[in-house]
Design a protein that fits this description.
The strands form 2 sheets. This protein has an 8-stranded mixed beta sheet, with helices on both faces. It has a 5-stranded parallel beta sheet with strand order 2-1-3-4-5, with helices on both faces. The protein contains 17 helices and 13 strands. The protein has 2 domains: about 140 residues, Response regulator (Rossmann fold), CATH 3.40.50; about 270 residues, Rossmann fold (3-Layer(aba) Sandwich). With about 425 residues, it is α/β, with parallel strands linked by helices. The chain starts with a helix and ends with a helix. Strand 3, helix 3 and strand 4 form a beta-alpha-beta unit.
Length: about 425
């Protein structure tokens, strides 16, 4: 399905009756052309172009008939920000407004949140992002529904470079596609705040700014979370922070646990890509998990590290989730002198989950293109093997997933102290 076709499929769900009317305020010819090309494929969409800037149509634009109002704004212009605030005060929450910005700025995002702007996009805007945003805000707050108990899948590396990020991404994609609900149901969270690779692997802009949240963790709510979410073209929601390779710091556990509680209360499935380093909040994450997978490579040192990590987690967390070991990049030939499947099972015992076959060229191409593996090669061996473990096996919640939804990770952190 092309991006335009996907966009039309998404926007079609916003119009219960009649035609969906999208009003746009812009003097950017390229952006206007993108909007027209995006919506022209559907007879259910009526595009209203006001033209000009928000300062020019503040008092004259009649937005009553619009389903969604898209405003291209220069966020660095105090005059335009003031005009937007006045327009918001005049029309209230209906129609919902999507602000289109020239670049991302945390202070501007906070100002838009205070104005109660429904959503914002950063140029260059893709057709899928535009229509997904329109579809989401057109449904209104009621469409979000009550928070549900998320299923938490956590991937922890036994050593560096074992492929944990690739497995976490593929697992999140599998869970999202298996979810029964139409809305975005799955969130992938990169908890490696120093060397995280999720955003790079998916070719996304990382928007999480923990430094903004740290002084007041209580500020973090659903609306601020939406500001800090990135969305892949597949529909997968991603929480990732910009890399800070020269800054080794551990954030206040309250900041991290507040973030994780909020994410787990608004998605059906949450996948954590963990760093190898153990932080003050690591216990909380592991104890809050339903499924905990330790990823190892197919080497003797790698298996030793994995086995030691399994023992350490069981000793440290007691009745927490039962850690299972995934042996990645497994390759065995009949006459090879390397490790065999029997060797892995014998070494790891009950902690052994399964092996993931080695296909480095496929993984490398997917990373370079920022897409899931099955978009490169449908039915590939890696995705098929993960599907057997993640989707096809009966879901059984571990003890770690039994905490109440509210304060799930904070509750577990207190338990481990």
């Amino acid at each position: 399905m092309s991006k335009i076709s996907l966009a039309m499929h998404l926007v079609g769900r916003t119009a219960d009756t009649g035609r969906t009317k999208v009003a746009i305020v812009t003097d950017d010819a390229a952006f206007e052309r993108l909007v027209r090309e995006t919506f022209s494929a559907s007879n259910a969409i009526e595009l209203i172009h006001a033209g000009g800037r928000v300062t020019e149509c503040l008092n004259t634009f009649a937005a009553d008939d619009a389903t969604v109002l898209v405003i291209d704004i220069d966020a660095h212009s105090a005059e335009e920000m003031t005009a937007l605030a006045k327009l918001m005060a005049r029309i209230g929450s209906r129609p919902p407004i999507i602000a289109v910005l020239p670049d991302f700025d945390a202070n501007v995002a906070r100002a838009l949140m205070q104005m109660r702007v429904a959503d914002f996009l950063v140029k260059p805007v893709t057709p899928v992002d535009l229509v997904r945003a329109c579809a989401q805000v057109a449904k209104g707050p009621a469409a979000v529904g009550e928070p549900t108990e998320a299923q938490i899948y956590t991937f922890l590396p036994a050593a560096g470079g074992v492929g944990v990020t690739t497995l976490a991404i593929q697992t999140a994609i599998l869970l999202m596609r298996a979810a029964p609900r139409e809305r975005s149901s799955t969130c992938l969270v990169d908890l490696d705040f120093q060397h995280g690779a999720v955003a790079d692997y998916l070719d996304l802009e990382p928007r999480l700014n923990l430094a903004e949240i740290e002084p007041r963790p209580d500020r973090l709510d659903r609306q601020l979370l939406e500001v800090m979410l990135s969305y892949h073209a597949s529909g997968l929601a991603v929480v990732a922070a910009p890399n800070r390779p020269a800054e080794m710091r551990s954030f206040d556990p309250d900041v991290v646990t507040r973030l994780l509680d909020l994410v787990s209360s608004h998605f059906d499935y949450v996948v954590f890509d963990m760093p190898r380093t153990w932080f003050s909040w690591t216990d909380s994450v592991l104890l809050g998990s339903d499924k905990l997978y330790i990823v190892s490579e197919t080497t003797v040192p790698g298996l030793r590290h994995a086995k030691q990590l399994v023992s350490a987690i069981k000793e440290r967390l007691g009745d927490g989730p039962n850690p299972q070991v995934i042996v990645n990049r497994f390759q065995q030939s009949m006459f090879s002198a390397g490790l065999r499947l029997h060797d892995l099972q014998q070494t790891l015992g009950e902690a052994f989950a399964f092996v993931v076959p080695n296909d480095y060229p496929l993984v490398r191409e997917a990373i370079d293109r920022g897409v899931p593996l099955d978009e490169i090669k449908a039915g590939n061996k890696i995705t098929a093997q993960l599907k057997k473990l993640i989707i096809d096996r009966p879901a059984r919640s571990a003890e770690g997933g039994s905490a109440p939804l509210a304060g799930r990770f904070k509750h577990k952190l207190a338990k481990s102290a």
